[in-house]
Amino acid sequence: MQGYKTFMAKPKDIERERKWYLVDATDVPLGRLAARISQILMGKHKPNYTPHVDTGDFVIVVNASNVKLTGRKATQSVIYRYSGYKGGLKAVPYNVLLEKKPERLIEVVVKGMLPRNRLRYERKLKVYAGPDHPHEAQKPEVLDI
Q1: Which structural domains are found in the chain, ordered by start?
Q2: For 126-144, what is each residue's pLDDT tens digit?
Q3: Three-state helix/strand/coil letters over the chain
Q4: Greater confidence, 84 or 54?
């Protein structure tokens, strides 16, 4: 019986030349931004996407402090941190984190949209609160969201 075979990329088959994308987070809803970034980090935008192989690209996010929180997410959504000790659970609302560490807010939301395996922890996301970033040498493509 003749059938079609699904293409599964092997780590040696993946091109080592990864693209760099530049995303401006100004007035973009946080969830929409995170969903698009996570797809690029996983490599789902490429025809040779394979779930168990890292096929993703690098993403640079600028103006993270200007991201838009829609609805009541600013006060109701919370990021938790646990120190490991009794009473060490800290809950920080999105609006407080957006004021103090906007880079951390985007990193945590994008990390929640990535698969829970080894590929989740690849350091391909670079987030900056302002418009400046030190990755001009990589010649990033501007990505519209």
Answers
A1: 20-69+102-142 (3.90.1180.10)
A2: 999 999 999 999 999 999 9
A3: CCCCCCCCCCCCCCCCCCCEEEEECCCCEHHHHHHHHHHHHHCCCCCCCCCCCCCCCEEEEECHHHCECCCCHHHHCEEEEECCCCCCEEEEEHHHHHHHCHHHHHHHHHHHCCCCCHHHHCCCEEECCCCCCCCHHHCCEECCC
A4: 84
